[in-house]
Design a protein that fits this description.
Blueprint (H helix, E strand, L loop, with lengths): L2 E3 L3 H11 L5 H19 L5 E8 L2 E8 L5 E6 L3 H10 L4 E2 L1 E6 L6 E7 L8 E5 L2 E2 L3 H12 L4 E5 L2 E2 L1 H10 L5 E3 L1 E2 L2 E2 L5 E2 L5 H6 L3
Parallel strand pairs: 1-12, 4-5, 4-6, 4-8, 8-10, 9-11, 10-12, 11-13
Antiparallel strand pairs: 2-3, 6-7, 14-15
């Protein structure tokens, strides 16, 4: 599988607090922002660089800067918004797109209801963010949308994933790497990740 779990003490610590049902929305938002920064560090390690030189207070120094346009961060509404803010802390010059998907009650397939992507997406790498990779349907659909728009590469960043969802994304988009904090046991009868952390959107915005 293309899934890469970011195994770091700070990630483990913050994920445990996020899983705790007693964590309140404000703390949940803060923790999700913080852990997204840590995950984003790993997910962006393949970004291209260009060489440059700068003048320090004591002399010239050779260095490197990100090459070309910075990535476009694409949260899947609405829970993905909580992760997008963390990525913007480490990529302040990134563009931000939005994709809205809802599940059709008859077919159980994702249906697009909103899309706003930058006009120059063909010059950017897209980082699709969605905290919960459960069935994989929404993530795979979002990836198809940004690919169709011409993104020059795609990475999927989640918080917690189920093996079922990872397989779906792998099958439909074998070229897309997936980064997350944990690969959990699987899905229950209601397609919730076990043990997971519940509905990330509801916990972010206090709509339980």
């Amino acid at each position: 599988m293309q899934f890469q779990a970011i195994d770091h003490p700070l990630v483990r610590h913050k994920l445990t607090l996020l899983r705790d049902e007693g964590t309140q929305p404000k703390d949940f938002r803060d923790l999700l922002l913080e852990i997204s920064m840590l995950l984003g560090y790993a997910a962006t390690q393949g970004l291209p660089l260009r060489s440059t030189s700068v003048q320090t207070p004591v002399g010239p120094a050779e260095g490197q800067l990100l090459a070309g346009r910075q990535p476009v961060i694409v949260p899947v509404l609405r829970a993905g918004l909580g992760m997008a803010e963390g990525l913007l802390r480490i990529l302040p010059a990134a563009a931000v797109g939005h994709i809205g998907l809802a599940r059709d009650p008859q077919t159980h397939q994702p249906v697009e209801y909103y899309r706003k992507l930058p006009a120059d997406i063909r010059e950017r790498h897209a980082i699709v963010v969605d905290p919960m990779l459960a069935t994989g349907g929404s993530a795979a659909a979002a990836i198809s949308i940004v690919k169709g728009a011409g993104a020059c590469g795609v990475t999927l960043l989640c918080l917690v994933a189920a093996p079922e969802g990872v397989r779906v994304v792998d099958e439909q988009h074998p070229d897309v790497p997936i980064f997350g904090a944990a690969l959990d046991e699987g899905l229950n009868d209601h397609a919730y990740i076990v043990p997971g952390l519940g509905d990330a959107g509801d916990r972010l915005y206090g709509t339980l």
